[in-house]
Predict the 3D structure of the following.
Amino acid sequence: MPTEHDYLKAMEKHTRKQKLRKARKNNPANLKKEKPRQRDWSAYSDDEWDDGGFYQDERVMPPGSEELRKETAKAAEKVQLHEDEDGINQLEPEIEEEHLPGVVIEVAANRCKVQVDGEMLDCSFRRAMLKHESAFTTLAAVGDEVRVSEIESGVGVVEQVLPRRNMLARLHRPDAGKTSSRRRVIAANIDQVLVVASWRKPNIWPELVDRYLIAAARNDLEAVICVNKIDLVADQSELEETIQPYRDAGYQVILTSAETGAGVDTLRDLLAGSITVFAGLSGVGKSSLLSRIEPGLKLRTLTVGERGKNRNQGRHTTTMATMYPLKEGGALIDTPGIREFGLAFLHQAELASFYPEFTRLNGGCEYADCTHTHEPGCRIKAAVAQGEISPMRYESYVKILEGLPGK
Ligand SMILES: Nc1nc2c(ncn2[C@@H]2O[C@H](COP(=O)(O)OP(=O)(O)OP(=O)(O)O)[C@@H](O)[C@H]2O)c(=O)[nH]1
Ligand SMILES: [Mg+2]
Ligand SMILES: [Zn+2]
């Protein structure tokens, strides 16, 4: 039960906040310009500034909240000082010494886990960030470099998200039928993508493998193909037939079994020192491979009841992207199986350029704008007929092409 003391404290907090707001409003530097609504969500703006991380309507103060209040007041003064000094509203707050550098390990709605110096902080976002428009569905993504302030042991506030070196993203689909131009960032600041498929259970699906390869290439990311569950291979020549086209196209293909451990050493070598995203359909064995590579990792998997109905009871289904730093350096990012992937805004005419074995024959078609489907004199179709290009790859090209917007 809140006591009168708690109530008075809360009132005091409220009054102080109002004073701070008023001071900021009356500051001539702030009166000069009407701030435009910024896409840059790292911006501070007058109305939107708030002491993020504070639970506003909470009367019983959580432990450490007094310190938090002081910190917040101090931070407010500091923002004001910056604006006083140069008279302009800074869109990007300076990186301040006391804000700790960290990496986002996991993201949930409006919260994230940040690794700071080997310690894990459960963070909220500076409230000003939450209100800004963004082309992305979340403020931060796994792999983002951030600056945080620790408000109490294990708890922090993300003050700033640093610009991304690269990212793997897909279009966000809020509900069936509705479209959105916002993108969901699966991971940021990565070195390579491991496209994981399973030989059986579920069967390898070349079209999806190709989609992942294209998505990686569009983001200038190296991609390596990993065919897992090779313990389930009954017909070795069928396996060879399936993977050879990828090798011919120039991709590295590794064969693994999380069950027997085959190929795991090769995989481990490939991953050491790099930041790798594991991408692939649900059930292909991404998480199983991860725990093979680094035994002792505590993988985040679906626990019974977490999703309301236990549709996936008994299976270790990954529900969110999570980063696992490796002992040898580098990190792995486990992702939930994603069907629809990264081909947003890709145009039909661009697709062929993501098939290396097609581009090698570039210019051989009769029509310069050949889509390699119905046109006469198509060099690509001829190559398929002659066995120069794999029918499997060509089929996936045609299927993907059908789903893309034209010119
Ligand atoms: N036979 C065989 N089964 C495997 C292998 N790797 C994983 N499995 C099994 O495949 C199932 C799915 O494995 P997970 O590691 O959970 O798959 P995932 O790709 O992480 O799936 P999501 O988290 O849903 O995206 C589990 O029952 C594993 O035991 C393998 O190499 N061989
Ligand atoms: Mg998983
Ligand atoms: Zn053609």
The chain has four domains: 4-86, 100-167, 189-306+313-334, 348-402.
